[in-house]
């Protein structure tokens, strides 16, 4: 996937300025596709030049005008073509898993603090996902197709974080057992 595809999806969900897109990447999209603010702005300029997106100047009181981007017909066509391309299963690079295996050749308890740090990070992310789910997808609410697809992606993130936390708990138990 290219950053262009992630930007097109975001703009189809809701038009926005470069700053607003960067914030969306920081808040949600960034968990499965990361990009710096500079990368987003650079790609926006290229996509506008290629006609994939359109920009509208919006006046702001006391601040410089901003460009609000939206997906244009050529961008929608690119996205439609991309949706039909096969996607290969992703390979995972997991440095912590390699460190856990390496602990067999040193003191396993030396990794406890690092695994706990990862666990805290994943627990905080799960809490954020669950809070967002309660806010954006209340139980029993009628959801349109876009909302249903956003929700199924969020549920995947929730389940991934739950699985990761269970695994990290298992790792911690193993490290503690081996450290004694």
TrEMBL record:
The lineage of its organism: Bacteria, Bacillati, Actinomycetota, Actinomycetes, Kitasatosporales. Transmembrane segments: none annotated. This is PadR family transcriptional regulator. Residues 92-175 form the Transcription regulator PadR C-terminal domain. Residues 7-80 form the Transcription regulator PadR N-terminal domain. PANTHER family: TRANSCRIPTIONAL REGULATOR YQJI, TRANSCRIPTIONAL REGULATORY PROTEIN. SUPFAM superfamilies: Winged helix' DNA-binding domain. InterPro entries: Tscrpt_reg_PadR_C, Tscrpt_reg_PadR_N, WH-like_DNA-bd_sf, WH_DNA-bd_sf. It comes from the Bacteria. Pfam families: PadR (PF03551), Vir_act_alpha_C (PF10400).
């Amino acid at each position: 996937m290219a950053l262009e595809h992630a930007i097109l999806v975001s703009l189809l969900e809701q038009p926005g300025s470069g700053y607003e897109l960067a914030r969306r990447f920081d808040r949600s999209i960034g968990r499965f596709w990361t990009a710096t603010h500079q990368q987003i702005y650079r790609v926006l300029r290229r996509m506008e030049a290629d006609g994939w997106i359109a920009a509208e100047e919006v006046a702001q009181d006391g601040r410089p005008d901003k460009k609000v981007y939206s997906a244009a017909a050529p961008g929608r066509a690119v996205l439609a073509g991309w949706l039909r391309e096969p996607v290969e299963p992703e390979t995972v690079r997991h440095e912590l898993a390699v460190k856990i295996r390496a602990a067999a050749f040193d003191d396993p308890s030396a990794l406890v603090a690092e695994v706990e740090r990862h666990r805290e990070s994943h627990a905080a992310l799960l809490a954020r996902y669950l809070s967002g789910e309660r806010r954006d997808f209340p139980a029993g609410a009628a959801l349109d197709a876009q909302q249903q697809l956003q929700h199924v992606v969020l549920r995947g993130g929730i389940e991934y974080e739950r699985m990761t936390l269970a695994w990290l708990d298992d790792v911690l138990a193993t490290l503690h057992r081996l450290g004694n």
